[in-house]
Amino acid sequence: MWSWVGHRITGVGIFFFLLVHVLDTSLVRVSPEAYDAVIGAYKHPIMIMGEIGLVGAIVFHAFNGLRIILVDFWKQGTRYHRQMLWAVMVLWFVTMVAFSIRHLMIFFEGWEGF
Amino acid sequence: MTATNSEAVLPAQGIEAPRSGRIDPKYLRSSASSGSFEMVAWVFMRVSGAALVVLIFVHLFSNLMVGEGIHQIDFAFVAGKWANPVWQFWDLTMLWLAMLHGTNGMRTIINDYAEKDSTRLWLKSILYLACAVIIILGTLVIFTFEPCLLDDAGNLMDYSPSFCESVVN
Ligand code: HEM
């Protein structure tokens, strides 16, 4: 039940981010200055935390979505749905630890201060 | 909740699809004629979802996990990627699948929570309009993008990716 709530909330969140993301990328057609200025906002420490949250939402939605697909199409899917939810959470955790470490290390290496 | 899955003891055959025939037709919002569209939408959510895992994971990896990660993202980086038709096609496919998948998911959610006919109509109209605008805009940006911009004096602008020097001069 809560996995369904989580899937729904992350789906909506990602959808609204995607609207914004296509708009900010469209600035490459306005001018290089405009694009670089706006995309620069993604390099602020607060946004770095936001990116980790966003990737966390995407990775949960992706793995849990694959679980839904397996429950629907794989013969044994309904039998193992609970075990697969555990797998989703473990894989989510491992992926997020790896992503967060790499993202933060890159961020601190190139950070020029406020 | 018991220790074992209750589903596990049910036979694989002989279970009706959820809600089939158990709800009086007068309580159903849609007529039976929309059945095939809903079926296509259901399959599309699963097929596009599986494709999006690959598309999005590679997108995030190549933009944030390699090279200088978040710091490398600027105009020249985008120009460099879209100089390659593979990335143009990659981003185009991702744009269309994610927008259609997300829009169809939002449609489901609107159907679930907006009870008044007029509210549903309004929300879905805004949703479809937003979807169309974003897909058209994103597609145009990918295909009309000009990486090697010149200033008024005809010199290559500072922001240009390095390959422009061999193209322009
Ligand atoms: C990363 C790969 C993805 C996978 C594997 C995936 C998978 C799924 C699946 C299986 C469903 C359930 C559909 C149904 O019950 O009929 C779903 C729903 C949904 N997805 Fe995705 N999806 C992915 C990416 C996305 C993206 C990028 C967005 C946003 C643009 C998104 C937004 C939604 C929304 C809003 C729903 C509806 C949630 C609901 O009805 O409760 N998904 N997804």
TrEMBL record, chain A:
The heme is bound between the two transmembrane subunits. It comes from the Bacteria. The chain crosses the membrane at residues 12-30, 42-63, 84-108. The keyword Iron applies. GO terms for biological process: tricarboxylic acid cycle. One of its GO terms (molecular function) is metal ion binding. It is found in: Membrane. Heme binds at residue 61. GO terms for cellular component: membrane. Keywords: Heme, Iron, Membrane, Metal-binding, Transmembrane, Transmembrane helix. Belongs to the cytochrome b560 family. The keyword Iron-sulfur does not apply. Its cofactor is heme. This is Succinate dehydrogenase, cytochrome b556 subunit. Its main location: membrane.
Automatic annotation (TrEMBL), chain B:
One of its GO terms (molecular function) is metal ion binding. Keywords: Heme, Iron, Membrane, Metal-binding, Transmembrane, Transmembrane helix. CDD domains: SQR_TypeA_SdhD_like (cd03500). InterPro entries: SQR/QFR_C/D (IPR034804), SuccDH_FuR_B_TM-su (IPR000701). It is found in: Membrane. This is Succinate dehydrogenase. It comes from Nesterenkonia natronophila. The chain crosses the membrane at residues 39-62, 82-100, 121-145. The keyword Hydrolase does not apply. The lineage of its organism: Bacteria, Bacillati, Actinomycetota, Actinomycetes, Micrococcales. Coiled coil: none annotated.
